[in-house]
Each structure stands twice: as C-alpha cells, then as structure tokens.
Amino acid sequence: MGEASLTADLEDHSLYFDRELSWLDFNDRVLQLAEDPSTPLLERAKFCAIWETNLDEFFMVRLPALYDLIAAGRARGDGISASERVDAIAKVVTAQRNRLSQCLSSQLMPALAEHGIGFVDAETAQGDERRQLDAMFERRIFPALTPLLVGLGRPFPYISNLSLSLAVVLRDPDLETEALARVKVPKELLGRFLTIETEGDGVALVALEDLIAANLGALFPGMEVTDHSFFRVTRDTDYDVSDEADDVLEAVEEELRRRRFGEVVRLEIASGMSLRLRSALVDAMQVADNQVYEVSGPIDLGDLWDVVGVPGHSNLRDPTHASVTQPRLQADDGGEADIFAAMREGDVLVHHPYDSFTTSVERFVAQAVDDPDVLAIKQTVYRTSADSPLVPALIEAAEHGKQAVCMVELKARFDEQANIRWAKKLEEAGVHVVYGIPALKTHVKCILVARREGDGVRHYAHIGTGNYNPKTARIYTDLGLFTCDPDIGSDIAEMFNYLTGYARPQRYRKVLVAPMNLQSGVVEQIDRTIASHSSEQPARIRMKMNSLLDAPAIRALYRASQAGVEVDLNVRGICALRPGVDGVSENIKVRSVVGRFLEHSRIYCFERPGEDPVVLIGSADLMPRNLYNRVELVVPVEDERVRTEVIDVLDRSLADETNTWELHSDGRWVRVKPFAEGARSVQRELTERAQQRVATDIG
Fold this sequence. Notes:
Blueprint: H1 3-7, H2 19-35, H3 41-61, H4 63-72, H5 82-114, E1 117-119, H6 127-141, E2 148-150, E3 164-172, E4 177-184, H7 187-190, E5 193-196, E6 203-207, H8 208-213, H9 216-219, E7 224-235, H10 248-259, E8 264-270, H11 275-285, E9 292-295, H12 305-308, H13 339-345, E10 348-352, H14 358-370, E11 374-381, H15 390-399, E12 403-408, H16 416-428, E13 432-434, E14 441-442, E15 446-453, E16 456-464, E17 476-483, H17 486-500, E18 512-514, H18 518-532, E19 540-545, H19 551-562, E20 566-571, E21 588-593, E22 598-599, E23 603-607, E24 614-618, H20 624-628, E25 630-636, H21 640-655, E26 660-663, E27 669-671, H22 682-698
Parallel strand pairs: 1-6, 8-9, 11-12, 12-13, 14-25, 17-22, 19-20, 20-21
Antiparallel strand pairs: 2-4, 3-4, 3-7, 5-6, 7-8, 10-17, 11-15, 15-16, 16-17, 18-25, 19-23, 21-26, 23-24, 24-25, 26-27
Helix pairs in contact: 2-3, 2-5, 3-5, 4-5, 14-15, 18-19, 21-22
C-alpha cells in the first residue's frame, strides 16, 4: 500500500459521483441505443419510449426531494446546493432531449416511412387521407373531448399527472375579448398514434393531439382560435408511510389519494409556445423557470410503444426470442417434471428470460398446490402482472386446506393499486395476507414450500433476483435458485415469521437479510478477501448489480483496491463509485451492459486463495434503500455445479463487448466498440447456449 493510499480520505466527496447525474448517464446509454444505426428500427423506437418513461419516473420520484431541499434552503451534504443540482440536471436533460428529438425527426421517422410506416400531418393532409381524418375526428375523437374554459370566474382546471393537453387562446369576435381554454388529449382512451388506411401493405399514423389541434374550430364554434400549443405536467408521486401507521392498507390508500394532487415538479411545453401562453401556464402551475422544459418535437415519446406495436414488420425487430425449459426440469417422457425430485438431487438454477418462467417458477407453485403432502406455501409479492397464475394458485392452495401465506408489499411504487386489488382477493379467499412492516418495503423475492416427508417436514425454496411477474420475466435477466438446503429453508422460514409475526431472529445460519445483517455481511466478505490477498496468491472481487450507492460498501471496495485486490464491477444503472483514482481505486473497473433485455440480476462473488469462491445472489443492490430501508434476501450458492453456472454468467457479463460502456475516472461512460468482428455479447451468447442445451438434450 503506497503513501497516497495511506493518506487518502475515503470520505472525500470527490470520490463519489452524484446519484442523479449518474442515473441520467444510465438513461443516456438507453438513448445511445436509440441512436445506434445497427439497432433494428422498431427497437430504436422502443428505446426512445424507454428513455421517456424512465425520465418521467425520475422526475416523479427523485426531483421532489431536491425541491424540498431548495424550499428549506439546505444543501444535500456534499457541499453542492440543491438548486445547483437541479440546474445541472436541467442542462443534461435538455441536451439529451434535443438529441432524442433530432434522432426521431431526422432518422427514425424517415427510415420507418421507407419501410411502410408513415406519419401523417393532420394539418396538411389532402385527398383520401383528409377524408379519413375528418371522419375519424367526427366519429371517434370529438365525442371524447371536453374543452374547459379558464377565467370568467372559472379557475384553471386540475391537470392530472403526465396528461398531455392543449392550451388554446380564443377570441370572441362579437365582444372582442379573449379567453384561455384547456383540452385534454384522451390518449388513454383512444391511443396516441392512430392508424388510417393506405394503399399497399404500409400503415399511416397520425398523432392524436395533432388531429385535435387541426379541428379546434369544431370545439369552439363561433370563436376564433388565435393561438394554441401543447403542454404536459409531471407531479410529485413520492410518499412515505409512517412506522406508526395502525393500518398499512388504509395508510397506503390515503397516500395514493393524496398523490393525485402532488405538486407539479416539471412543466413541459412545446417548442415555440408563445410567451403569453407560457406565462399563463407557469402562473397556473406555480413552477419556477428551472422547472419548465421546452420540447422540440412531440411531447411524451413514451407513447411510441403504439408505433412499436404496429403488426408485422419482423425485419425491423430483434429476432423472436423463445425461452426454453431448463434441462434439469425436463421430464423424460416429455410431460411435466417433478421439480421437488429435481431439487432433492441438487440445487437448480434458472436464468430468465433464457430459461422459461412458466416451466420453472410457475410449475413449482402449481406442483405445490396439487401435492397432498404440501402443508404450506409462503410467497412474497412486490410486483406482479394481472395475468400471473401465481397469486391465483395461492387462492387454490387455501381452498385445498393448505396454509397459504402471501406477503404483499403495498408500497411497491406505481404498483400499489394492483397489489391492493390482489391483497383483497387473497384475503377473501382465505389466504393469510400480510402487508409487511410500515417503515420498510419488503423487496424479497422468495417462495417457501413446507412438505411432509416421512416423520418430518422438508422446506423447498425459490429465491430470485427479480419479481414474480411473467411479463418482466420475458424481458428482464434474472436468476432464480431452487434449493432444499435445510439451513437456507430454516432461515427463510424464520424470515417469514419476522414478516408475518412479532419475531426478530437473532442470527441467520446462511442467508443475509436486510436490514439486519446484509450490509455488514457483504462488507465482511470484502474485508475477508482483503485479508486473504497477497501478490503471490491474489484474491479477486466481482459483482453484478443494478446500482451501487452505499458509501460504506464503496469505501470497503476502495480499501480492497488499495490492498491490491482486483475488483470488477458490472453496474447497469447508478454508480457512485469513482474508479481509476490513484491510491484509491486504480484496481477497480466498472462496466455497464444495456441491451435488448434489462440486466437485473444481482451477483456478489468473492474469490480467495485456497477456498471455493463465495457466490451470493438475491434481491438487493448495494444502495442505502435496499440495505437499510427494505427487507431483502441474499443467499449463498453452495452447490458446485450451480455456482459454476452463476460464475459463467458473471464471466460473460464482464466480457461483453457489444452493449457495454466503461466508466472512466472523470465520470464519462465510454462505449466499448461494438462493431469489431467477433465482438462478444452476453445476451446473444446466453440465448444461443440455452437453445444449444435444449437441442443437445433432445438429441
């Protein structure tokens, strides 16, 4: 350890990147995929939509805290004022938005038109297109519109979160007076991009708001429309449920009602909006200048999913992906496998979306429901889908007389209403529903089955890195471990007792659970790796996660680098750690993979001389919210065969050259050149490997 290492202050703010700006860097990587000419056209449109919806959530959840600091006149602790941070965010967002608009108008729309997906200008359309648009407006759109006048004793109407609107200036030619009106664009009812018929196999699309704008005269007969423009507001949707809440369900429902009326944190206006319209909206929304974002091109490109969903055009998309059944979960006779038997032979690893969610997780629960020897099924629900068979399976289990327990996290942001509906259905069916601990979110991904065997009971468990959601299981990369290890089973049983009852385990045998021992357990593994390292027998730390923010964990990784330990990190999103700093982090490399599938698995691997690698997987990132404010579960992978599989995933992730960016010490994320011949791609390789394993098994 050099002199610089001995004197380095690991709490120096300069060693940590800003959370918000780091997140914007992640969204920039999404934007680069939209700009990438090697990405299929409709996939590029998809990444435009993802960029927009990502940014919406960022403003709804992250910006309110900064505005609270501004109102209180406080800094955030790193010496930079909240106002300066908001200005820096605005500068980055505006630059990215301009690139996105340019990409859409000059690249994507012309290229899509060449492939038969055209866009119609409602104002200038002629001939048959004009007739179709007029008929569409009269029959479908006009009846759904409600113009609202502002003034003359009428206050400015409430503008709902993320709703797209027109602001219209009207002139009464008789009275020679002017008034302001608002027209909401009902895209939730009608869709944002509407289709009209064209000759041949192509499709023509028109933006709903443009069609409304072209027919404003029909909404205000007898008035002159002297000015109009588009705008959208974003509201604060963050909330907290007090740890003193007597009824979590009631408290969350009340917060959801309040959230509808959250303060406006962003006002988006169309480029070229007149000063008087802008001033009227700024006054009505009560926003500051740095909360106003001028948008060139269409506002709210999240609705490009309508374009992505246009039927056909397979040549403009990624090749169709089909998940396969994990070979160890395939029955010899081609029927449904006995998953319990497979688990008794050894742990089983599944990797979605390469391995099927249906023939693994869903099959596991279905078998437990049908098995007369199963006594209890316990499951956590953080985010799921409306068509998920897992929650109805718990209802069926209760009807069969089994102990069915569901830990439903009502505070899963933006899924609260869906989870409330599921919770009520479960309770009505006799399932034991628990809403968790008010001050903590239960982010655990776990299913526990208790089965009577001989004169005892055996626990079968599934521990995942992702939600029990069949839809996201097709587009997120997540690991799942099936195990009947008795210590892990007992640990998880005690964790459920902690969640459902009034108990707090003093210690766990093998698992790490937040907020009890997860953070300290990971730091302990880092410190043990440091102690084992020498130049003659080097140690190594490798991790894969979504975000890295926890300062104590980062300091531990800095200490590892100072000791000479090689540290390789694959961080998809936010990374506060600054690599490549002399005397602090020169032995740390940080990479990010952003591609067709959302990298979502969490792997923590510690390689020490003379020992088997310690490999952990689970639900938690190294972020304060995960480590201190949520219930999380991370488990060791001890089966040698499965551990080898997980390490292989880690190896491939760190070797990716196609959709990878490397973080430099100055904060720049630089893309690894993806076009070199033979460039490696973790997602392509794992897709091909899954298909080859099935083909080999069949052969």
